[in-house]
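User: quick one, sequence for these tokens?
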């Protein structure tokens, strides 16, 4: 392994978030051959408590030289191979906060352990056969999950729901390779190879790879979330919409136009998808230098967003200002939010709809599914807004629900390479090249599939994956 991941010796790290005056428990995790000896050096368990695996001891952590009391704590013992890393593991469960866990960690480092690298506990679990790479990545996704659905998808990976089909595909490729190599080595003793059967098997494997690749966009959406920008003229109800949607008072709401001078963010979950909502300053020409900066930030937020909510004031109708903003954002996925609908009569609403229809048709952007009516100040129309967002998500490349798996970029790259290799095998067969040529790209597909689960992996891949973990994991 590289120097970054020199997986020798006994390692220690704080395994819980350390926040001043928050959190009742802090955990220091130790893994390696000297973990038990280190625990016996630092931890005093009064009475006749038995030091055996998967037992929790109560006692005190003391400085081994001065015998100064550091903390009253619990000690959890997990002997190899029945531990996360398949090494001896001990955990000091200390009081929360900063000082206790930091002092315990320092004692561990002074008495033979070294500080763990990011992800090193999980790396050891992988190297010791406790996890494959898809499960390790599932752990990272679970820690960073931003929604219940993202957590469920991560758990599916952790439980091997991705590894199983990948291993099956690789096994199928190995079976085909064995058939071909048998004909190469024992051509006279075996019947001729049936090209049509081989091609059919390769097509089945490629089809399954295509199905798995279709989950990539969903995976990215669950991991990174959907960035939604609320844009519009000043005082059309953008901040009221954010507050009603987030059920909070994140944004200041007044009758004065231009109240919001900067981008206000709120984190929501819609249909299992994490959503970062950006309430932007009203877009208009202004001589106010501060407001001008806010307007420019609003334009940048709209251009960087995955989805734009262009909000207009129903009581003011479709104005020239609305048209100008629409022309600036129409290239983005867009929902037209007609707000303050409670302030207009039914006949006025129909006239407004007609005007908007004409404006949208002029830009070949007429989609009735992208137009909703709200009265944000009365908390009306939020359900319709969320439905419209999910419709846009589901009719695009990304499917928002009813999928157990979601591959990441690394896995997608390997699957794509495997598919290309299989297509090359098919081309080789079609050109009636010798059997030796068939095996070249078939081996490439086998290697690519092995990289996903870790059966074939390089140091650089491991460095890239595990350096993204937190230190205690």
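Assistant:
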């Amino acid at each position: 392994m590289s120097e970054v991941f020199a997986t020798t010796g006994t390692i220690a790290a704080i395994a819980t978030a350390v926040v001043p005056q928050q959190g009742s428990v802090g955990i220091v995790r130790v893994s390696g051959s000297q973990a038990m000896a280190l625990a016996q050096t630092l931890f005093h368990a009064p009475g006749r408590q038995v030091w055996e695996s998967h037992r929790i001891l109560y006692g005190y952590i003391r400085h081994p030289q001065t015998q100064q009391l550091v903390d009253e704590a619990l000690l959890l013992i997990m002997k190899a191979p029945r531990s996360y890393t398949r090494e001896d593991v001990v955990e000091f469960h200390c009081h929360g906060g900063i000082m206790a866990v930091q002092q315990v960690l320092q004692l561990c480092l002074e008495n033979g352990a070294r500080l763990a690298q990011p992800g090193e506990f999980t790396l050891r679990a992988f190297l010791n056969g406790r996890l494959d790479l898809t499960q390790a990545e599932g752990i990272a996704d679970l820690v960073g999950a931003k929604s219940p659905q993202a957590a469920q998808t991560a758990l599916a990976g952790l439980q091997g729901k991705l590894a199983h089909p990948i291993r099956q595909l690789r096994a199928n490729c190995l079976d085909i390779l064995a058939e071909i190599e048998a004909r190469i080595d024992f051509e006279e003793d075996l019947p001729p190879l049936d090209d049509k059967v081989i091609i059919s098997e390769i097509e089945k494997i490629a089809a399954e790879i295509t199905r798995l690749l279709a989950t990539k966009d969903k995976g990215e959406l669950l991991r990174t979330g959907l960035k939604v920008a609320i844009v519009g003229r000043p005082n059309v109800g953008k901040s009221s919409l954010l507050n009603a949607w987030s059920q909070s008072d994140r944004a200041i709401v007044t009758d004065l136009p231009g109240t919001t001078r900067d981008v206000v963010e709120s984190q929501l979950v819609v249909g299992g998808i994490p959503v970062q909502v950006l309430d932007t300053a009203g877009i208009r020409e202004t001589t106010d230098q501060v407001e001008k900066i806010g307007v420019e930030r609003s334009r940048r937020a709209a251009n960087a967003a995955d989805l734009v909510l262009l909000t207009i004031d129903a009581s003011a109708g479709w104005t020239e200002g609305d048209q100008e903003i629409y022309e600036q954002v129409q290239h983005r996925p867009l929902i037209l939010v007609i707000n303050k609908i409670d302030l207009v009569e039914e006949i006025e609403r129909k006239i407004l709809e007609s005007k908007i229809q004409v404006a949208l048709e002029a830009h070949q952007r007429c989609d009735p599914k992208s137009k909703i009516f709200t009265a944000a100040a009365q908390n009306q129309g939020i359900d319709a807004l969320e439905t419209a967002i999910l419709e846009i998500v589901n009719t695009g490349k990304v499917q928002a629900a009813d999928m157990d798996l979601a591959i990441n970029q690394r896995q997608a790259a390997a699957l794509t390479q495997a598919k290309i290799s299989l297509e090359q095998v098919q081309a080789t067969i079609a050109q009636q090249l010798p059997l030796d040529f068939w095996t070249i790209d078939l081996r490439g597909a086998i290697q690519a599939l092995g990289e996903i689960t870790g059966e074939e992996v390089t140091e650089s891949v491991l460095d890239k994956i595990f350096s993204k973990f937190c230190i205690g994991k």
